[in-house]
Amino acid sequence: MMKKKILYVEDELNLGTIVSETLGQKGFDVLLIKDGAKVMESFKIFTPDICVLDVMLPHKDGYEIGKEIRIRYESLPIIFLTAKTQTQDVVKGFSSGGTDYIRKPFSVDELVVRIHNQLQLQLKNKINTHADVILLGKIKFIPKKFELHLASGIIKLSNREAEVLTVFAKHINETVDRKKLLLEVWGDDSFFHSRNLDVYISKLREYFTADAGIEIITLKGKGYQFVVG
């Protein structure tokens, strides 16, 4: 089996060495980079399956790197590492292309679990969006029937609700641009459809209260993050 490749960006030499060596012992192929300005250049010689980015880096921070990666690689998982603990920092991480977020200090065991989880979610996403049944945490979504199957029963979705949710299901734990979502579902991003989208988002949030692991995060000025834990 091919080793999964991790692009690990960390400027703290001791921490970077310990974590990269431990990940290597866990069966990963790790490229450690210490300078944020050298990250994008590394993609010419190393194609990662997942990126683990420290936020505070010399010359270019993790958020900026995350945005650049997301432009070029739409579905590549990105885990941010940071000592920042404010909610706005977490939101900024997701809006910068992150699919997961770990606060420092962290255990390498936790990082390994989160890496495996992100890789599994990516694989599930690729498989399930082409299936009759899409698994979203504990909830089953059947697009052709416009149905959500919960433990408490079945919720019948409207056509538009199902279309919006289908777009989210294609981009689990990724940033979904609001304009792109409007164009894909309605064909234009007019004010009228934008107001309708707000209504459908509210309804979907209400439906997903049945599973605490699912959340639709609004990224102000950008779009949404459909988080499935």
Report the biggest beta sheet as strand number plus sense, adding barrel if it closes: 5 strands, parallel
Helix content percent band: 40-55%
Q: Write down the domain tally.
A: 2
Distance between the termini: 26 Å
The CATH top-level class label of the largest domain: Alpha Beta
- Strand-and-helix sequence, N→C? EHEHEHEHEHEEEEHEHHEE
Q: Give the CATH topology of the largest domain.
A: Rossmann fold
CATH superfamily of the largest domain: Response regulator
Question: Outline of this structure?
Answer:
The protein has 229 residues and is an alpha/beta fold. It has helices spanning 13-25, 39-42, 62-72, 87-95, 108-128, 159-170, 178-185, 191-207; strands spanning 5-9, 29-33, 50-54, 78-82, 100-103, 134-136, 139-142, 147-150, 153-156, 175-177, 214-219, 223-228. The protein is built from eight helices and twelve strands.
